[in-house]
Amino acid sequence: MSTTVTPAQAARQEMSGFRGVVIGPGDAAYEPARVVYNAMIDRRPAVIARPADAADVARAVGFARTHGLRLAVRGGGHNGAGLGTVDDGVVIDLSALKSIEIDPGERVARVGGGCTWGEVDAATGEYGLATPSGIIATTGVGGLTLGGGLGHLTRRFGLTIDNLLEDRAGKW
User: Fold this and answer.
1) Per-residue pLDDT tens for 135-164?
2) Is residue 36 a contact partner of residue 85, using CB atoms and an 8 Å limit?
3) pLDDT at residue 170 in the model
4) 20 to 30 Å CA-CA from 27: which of 9, 43, 47, 66?
């Protein structure tokens, strides 16, 4: 008798040290975990990995590469075209990576990959600051930023990506 190992089972076995959560089609959490903002997008990933840190993200990327599986990264899950999900591949769901650090003196925010713009707006607003971001609060920071990022402040302060900084000094 032969048994077939599913990609989700393989991920649990092979991603040594993965601190986050691996969700597969047989898991109770699968249906809500695979849903994205645009209800017209109905994809069924083989693995949904919710990393706890950057090392977990690297492990999930490595797993997808090793197994030749398509890969999608989901920040807020808001992309209209459904780019944050994939059929029969690996979705790295960054929703657990929520952190926001504001340096009001430098007028800089460091934001985790699972944050939405509504969360960033609330955090920066406490200091009288704003970011040139999108117009919908549920949009993920990473996707909007790397996609350019248009919003109400764009004409005066540029696209969101124009305001992305590299952490050269290791301060953040």
Assistant:
1) 989 899 988 998 888 889 999 999 999 999
2) yes
3) 62
4) 66
What is each CA distance from 17 to 13, 56, 159, in whole angstroms? 10, 8, 37
What are the pLDDT digits (tens) for 88-141?
A: 999 999 999 999 999 999 999 999 999 999 999 999 999 999 999 989 898 999
Nearest to 98, CA basis, from 72, 118, 78: 118
Of 172, 166, 40, 18, the closest CA to residue 92 belongs to 18
Q: What is the pLDDT of residues 53-74, one digit of tens each?
A: 999 999 999 999 999 999 999 9
What is the C-alpha separation between 31 and 48, in angstroms, rounded?
A: 11
- Distance in Å from the first CA to the final CA of the chain: 53
Residue-range domains of the chain with CATH: 7-96 (3.30.43.10), 100-163 (3.30.465.10)
